[in-house]
Specification:
This protein is of the alpha+beta class. The chain contains 13 helices and 9 strands. It has helices at about 5-10, 25-35, 50-55, 60-70, 110-130, 140-150, 150-165, 180-190, 195-205, 215-220, 245-250, 255-270, 270-275; strands at about 20, 40-45, 75, 85-90, 95-100, 105-110, 130, 225-230, 240-245.
């Protein structure tokens, strides 16, 4: 088993866990174990950069925010914990991550003479950390707001995608060509939404500022995956209505949409050839049916 599997098995069904020095790679294991555990809230302290990264990690950030909103987890940022040991403690048991990077293991101690003092020290480490909030919306509120703003079909698609990703700490990394903003624009195109509406919703709910979605729209259009049609909308510049063009995206089950997007991006390169062959920005009144 992996270290994450060992951690999940070690802390599951233990109420009142106190965890310190927890990195992003172990947070999914904690969330999974917590779902199988009843009883007192868990206290979890992470390095400040891990808490900050949760605001850009769509699947993991929304999952941690949901656990916090439900009162299952109390999250804190623990300064200078990068070099400190990762430890999980409850009364009578302490589990610590040991070993060099790349070959870490979980060491367990149940000796009451040692665990009593260790548990108190770990609780003190947590108490000294700073209460933290995740800059991502909780999943339940996210889906409910999507249903209100963008309709049931979009919300159901979003729920399906999130369910398939669970709390994957590596999914939709914003350093990759396909990230959460790309995914949301593709979901909007599957449901014939206005670009204005999806990015306004994403901004208001706290996923990303609305100005950050323009490059993702252009990337999808340039690859011939999405059609972006100018339509008049009140006073000012025209808006864009989004429509899915690629059948692989339009017809994919929500659980398969991310893999379909990645496959299409890999197949179309930078999209320059597709962009050159189409008049993507022609206004709707100049287009032929």
């Amino acid at each position: 088993m992996s270290l994450a599997d060992d951690v999940e098995a070690a802390v599951a069904r233990r109420p009142g866990v106190v965890a310190v020095g927890v990195g992003a790679e172990l947070l999914p294991a904690l969330l999974s174990a917590r779902r199988h555990t009843r009883g007192r809230r868990w206290r979890v302290a992470c390095p400040p950069d891990v808490v900050d990264d949760l605001g850009r990690a769509f699947p993991l950030g929304t999952a941690v925010a949901e656990a916090c909103a439900r009162g299952a987890i109390a999250l804190r940022a623990e300064p200078d914990s990068r070099s400190a040991r990762t430890v999980f403690a409850t009364a009578g048991r302490v589990d610590a991550v040991a070993g060099p990077t790349g070959d870490r293991t979980l060491v367990t101690d149940v000796d009451p003479d040692r665990t009593r003092g260790a548990s108190e020290a770990i609780a003190a480490r947590f108490a000294a950390a700073t209460p933290a909030a995740v800059r991502m919306p909780p999943r339940r509120r996210l889906v409910e707001s999507a249903r209100d703003a963008l309709g049931s079909r979009f919300a159901d698609d979003l729920a399906g995608v999130l369910g398939s990703l669970d709390a994957d700490s590596a999914a939709l990394d914003r350093s990759e060509p396909v990230d959460d903003r790309t995914l949301l624009v593709a979901l909007a195109a599957r449901n014939d939404h206005l670009f204005h509406d999806v990015r306004e919703w994403a901004d208001e709910v706290g996923i990303a500022p609305k100005q950050e979605f323009t490059a993702e729209r252009r990337a999808l259009v340039d690859r011939g995956l999405v059609e972006s049609i100018k339509v008049p909308i009140g006073i000012g510049r025209p808006n864009y209505r989004l429509r899915a063009v690629a059948e692989a995206i339009d017809r994919a089950d929500p659980e398969e949409l991310l893999s379909a997007l990645r496959a299409q991006f890999a197949a179309t390169g930078d999209g320059s050839n597709a962009a050159a062959s189409r008049g993507d920005d022609r206004p709707v009144w100049d287009r032929r049916r």
